[in-house]
Amino acid sequence: MKALVYTGVEELTYTDRPRPEAGEDEALVRIMASGICGSDMHAYLGHDPRRPAPLTLGHEAAGVVVGGPQDGRRVTINPLVACQACNYCSSGRENLCQRRQIISMPPREGAFADYVAMPSRNLITVPEAVPLKHAALAEPIACGWHGVRLGRSVLGGDLSGARAVVIGGGAIGVGAALSLAAQGAQDIMLVEPNETRRARLADVAGFEVCAPGEPAMPGQGSADIVIDGVGDAGTRETASMIARPGGVIVHIGLGEATGGLDIRRMTLQEITFIGTYTYTSEDFAQTTAAIFDGRLGRLDWIEERPLAEGHAAFQDIRAGCVAAPKIILTPDHGGTET
């Protein structure tokens, strides 16, 4: 089969790889759509020791089951494979399982390929009316859905009167903003520095979009909930400044490890900080349901490119010239639907 393989720092090679074989309780999925994630970009730049070369990246995917009793089933993939036996798994917090695996990290190859093998329990059926390129967005949006759910619980469960600010207009930020709206928030501001991307986001879902430093930028202590979808020192500094007393910061981004938080202000103003990683199985299921019933909007903020041209897509993302929050790579299966 063909795959886009990370072969070294800033090197991706479209090449032949062995076709995976489905093990016990697994299914072989023909990948029809796979999104480029920020963590794929971190690996491409050599910043993620968890993803050593050579490795097939990609974990945001949807496709069609090939062979076996599920043959032809259209599915979206929960890429996080938990042990199902530990206390975290038993309590519904599979994302904290200490034996978890995820495709695109050893020992599991990723979904920038023609096929991937996955446990059947990690597959959710996609209705015929839903394009698989939209179903592939379940993974990045589920990260935001999970974070919003955790932040909402701190604020008493009701976001209808909350002022929400999302920092970062990539797929994680956009997914978080859409999740905020789907979970009841009505006053949502998305902060994005890239002018090209801001123009694309202005009509995505009706929420406001601004650049850092603009007059519309929320002021100190004005936000009930702040979601940092970037995770740099600068965005953490902004988050800890604009969160209101008693508010909550939900930190999803993994841009850099340290710096930025105003710990003194957060302590004196009792601002809750939540670090959030991926999602639970229930979060993933709720996200797919929201995609399928239209609560997350048209999902037309993606750009499709052939998997064979994936290296150029990575280069364009790094150069900052991609307006769409998400690029979806599509393997060549002879024109089959995505």
UniProtKB/TrEMBL annotation:
KW Oxidoreductase (keyword) present: yes
Organism per entry: Roseobacter sinensis
Protein name stated in the entry: Alcohol dehydrogenase catalytic domain-containing protein
Record's keyword terms, sorted: Oxidoreductase
Domain Alcohol dehydrogenase-like N-terminal: 23-128
A Pfam family hit: ADH_zinc_N
Domain Alcohol dehydrogenase-like C-terminal: 171-289
